[in-house]
Amino acid sequence: MDANNPRLAKLNKVFNSILFGKVALRTDNAKHFLEAICAQPDAATCLDKLIASKSGLIALQQAMHSERSTKFFNNHASDLLAFLQAPHLKIINGGDYLHDIVLKIVDPPIFWNPFRGAFLDNSLDEKTQLSLGWLLLQLCCLPTDLAAPYRTHNDTPTIMQTLLSSTSLPLASIGQKIKHVLDTCTTVSSTDTHLGRGPGGRHDNDFDDFRKISILPTADELKSKELPFLRPADVLDDPETEPTRVALHLDNQFRLLREDLIYEMREELQIATGQKKGYHRGVRITGLSVKEIDCGAEDKRTKWGLVLACQHDLLNLRKLKTAKARKEYIDDHRNFLKHQSLACLLAGDDIIGFPTIIRDEDRLAKDPPEIVMQFEGNDDMTEDCLLKLKMKSNVVLIQIDTPMFSYEPILKRLQQTNALPLSSELLLWKKGNELSTTFSSATMPIVEALRRDPQMNLQGILSTQMSITLDASQSASLLCSLTQPVSLIQGPPGKFNLQLLRAK
Fold first, then answer.
1. What is the pLDDT of residues 401-451, one digit of tens each?
2. If exposure means fewest CB atoms within 10 Å of the residue's CB, which of 57, 297, 340, 485 is most exposed?
3. Span 295-307, mean pLDDT?
4. Cβ contact 214:375 at 8 Å
5. In this structure, what DSSP letter does residue 485 have?
6. For 313, what's the count of Cα atoms within 13 Å in the CB-facing half-sphere?
7. What CA–CA distance (Å, rounded) separates 251 from 209?
8. 340 and 254: one domain?
9. In degrees, to the nearest 5, what angle opens at C-alpha 48 toward C-alphas 42 and 52?
10. What digits encode the pLDDT tens for the residues 242-272?
11. Statement: the pTM of the whole predicted model exceeds 0.85
């Protein structure tokens, strides 16, 4: 910010005074506060200050609620939303920074309802319409439980169609993005026309919407004898699935990958419990009982964990009688009750749950040892596990060797996905459709040169030591790869490929 500019200096003073609680937000300074936000030189730094301040987000919310006129929407509100569209904001903390700001603006809907109404009344200028479209897109991209009211609102299809039918390319583009998110997040119908049945109802962790499925299995799920719901590959080729094909693809990818995980876990548990022959490498501990809740040290609190006390000493530690020797063994053998490894708690044949081991060396070194466990999943699942632990005796812990780290991040990302890049080209493309074109400033000289002369020498453009002259097919292949979002180039490696490799 230019300190010599009196106007900017005054706005900066307003911004800091309200941010640090020295001045309360009022009707006469609300617009100035919004102007001051938009005048900040870096959007990310500004957002960080707003979120860190006790009064920052409240002041922003109050400022956006301060007026409901079309003039306010077309000026101060639109400018604030344009400021929030800085590209780097959406990647900070996985987008949570931006989500917090957006939710503060629209909830409660004191601003959002009249703003949406002004759009439907065609009272907004093009810049503000674009801001509204962007805001609706952010709301539709929120986590499912937060986004549902905006995705399913009666006005959303009307707004989307208005944007899609606009002659303005930016407005039509934002409408297309909203449509893509809504199509991707569609809950697939519970009835599958190919199989005569759909997902849901097999057990307590089987739902129509795959985003509601807990990644870790439940006891009821592992006991179920019914086959899991999996669609055959030809469903995605059926013309009838085109309207929901993107959602179907995500749904099926999640269910297929998760079934691989469940199969490994089920097989490992069967070996560990003697139902199936094989070797189980994980630790098995019997005679556990609930002792207390652990929340970390007083100066470094952590998520709560349940402390289970062993009735007897562990086999690996029985010969180590001094506290120092036990601690050294635990420090040297990191794979022994490995930190954040998965475990299964059993009481007889009844599965209690699948907690995560939190490796507290001081508790493990005790005689007998204590093991800290953390429970994932929704509140109902955790409550059910705790209730079973209270009612059951002779609890058994079996360390699970299934590599959750290779499954869980991908499964969670699939559940969070609300847009699928290249879906038009990879899932919805039909013979005869023209592919969209894409250009980069770095590749434009090569494209223009090859279009002028497909057989020209690219040595000068690519700054290579060797001469690079393409034949007709090579030139066409290179042009496709540089101008299309998706291209498939087939052919054996040869001089052309080696030259390009050296050029890179």
1. 888 888 999 999 999 888 888 887 888 877 777 777 776 777 888 888 888
2. 297
3. 87
4. no
5. S
6. 12
7. 8
8. no
9. 150
10. 888 888 889 999 999 999 999 888 888 888 7
11. no
Instruction: Work out the number of other CB atoms within 10 angstroms of the CB of residue 383.
Output: 11
| Same domain, residue pair 296 and 265 | no
Do 356 and 465 share a domain, yes or no?
Answer: no
Q: Provide the edge-to-edge strand list for the sheet that holds 350-353.
A: 350-353, 343-347, 395-399, 284-297, 300-310, 370-374, 356-358
The answer to whether the beta carbons of residues 89 and 47 sit under 8 Å apart is yes
- In the block, residue with structure tokens 């006790």: 54
Quickly tell me which residue has 């400033």 as its tokens. 441
Please state the domain count of the chain. 4
Among 153, 184, 215, the domain boundary falls at 184
User: How far lies 340's CA from each of 35, 382, 389, 400, in Å?
Assistant: 47, 17, 20, 11
Model confidence at 49: pLDDT above 60: yes
Instruction: Provide the 8-state DSSP code for 95.
Output: G
What span, in angstroms and rounded, lies between the C-alpha atoms of 232 and 209?
A: 18
Q: Are residue 261 and residue 340 in the same domain, yes or no?
A: no
Structure-token pair, residue 475: 């030139």
Q: How far apart are CA 233 and CA 238, in angstroms?
A: 10
379 contacts 310 by C-beta, under 8 angstroms: no
Q: Using alpha carbons only, what angle is made at residue 445 by residues 442 and 450, rounded to the nearest 5 degrees?
A: 130
The torsion angles phi and psi of 485, rounded to 5 degrees, stand at -65, -30
Judge contact between 235 and 253, C-beta under 8 A.
no
